[in-house]
Design goal:
By secondary structure, the protein is α/β, with parallel strands linked by helices. The chain has a single domain, classed as P-loop containing nucleotide triphosphate hydrolases (Rossmann fold), CATH 3.40.50.300. It has seven helices and four strands. A four-stranded parallel beta sheet has the order 1-4-3-2, with helices on both faces. The relative contact order is 0.19. The mean pLDDT is 85.
Length: 148
């Protein structure tokens, strides 16, 4: 009897930029080597590659992944995200940046977004934030402006 070790979606998920299908305008505008800005990927189409692209962009950097729909509480922001952002990586990473992936951001509360903006500004010198969402209208405009 065989045991399923991995979901099919994870097994076939693209692992690098050569494997992911992107519009040329997006591929040209994503600075994946230096990750010099924050990104917010949005599309109402499930499976369009938002999370995969986020994981690819952060693959060689110290990364914290959070699903905001299930972990978007203010205490998670204050404890996990702030702790991750405030420490420097001791590993042998070639990057000057850490990355926080906020998947399914449209599931966050107003309190979460207010606190998130302050955290993003505080750690902007060495942390990049990559967000994904299906409904961009659920993301407050000041937060949208902090992303590209």
């Amino acid at each position: 009897m065989s045991v399923i070790n991995q979901l099919l979606t994870e097994k076939v998920r693209p692992k690098n930029l050569d494997q992911i299908i992107l519009l040329d305008r997006i591929r040209k505008s994503v600075d994946y080597e230096t990750l010099s800005q924050n990104f917010l990927f949005h599309s109402q189409v499930p499976g369009s590659g938002k999370t995969s692209l986020s994981k690819i962009l952060s693959s060689d950097k110290p990364t914290l992944y959070l699903n905001v729909s299930s972990e978007g509480r203010i205490d998670v922001l204050r404890e996990e995200i702030t702790e991750f952002c405030s420490t420097r990586a001791l590993n042998n990473y070639d990057s000057d940046y850490k990355v926080v992936i906020l998947d399914e951001m449209d599931g966050g509360s107003n309190e979460f977004f207010k606190a998130l903006r302050a955290v993003m500004e505080k750690f902007s010198d060495h942390v990049r934030f990559i967000g994904t969402c299906n409904y961009i209208n659920k993301i407050p405009e000041p937060i949208q402006l902090d992303f590209w």
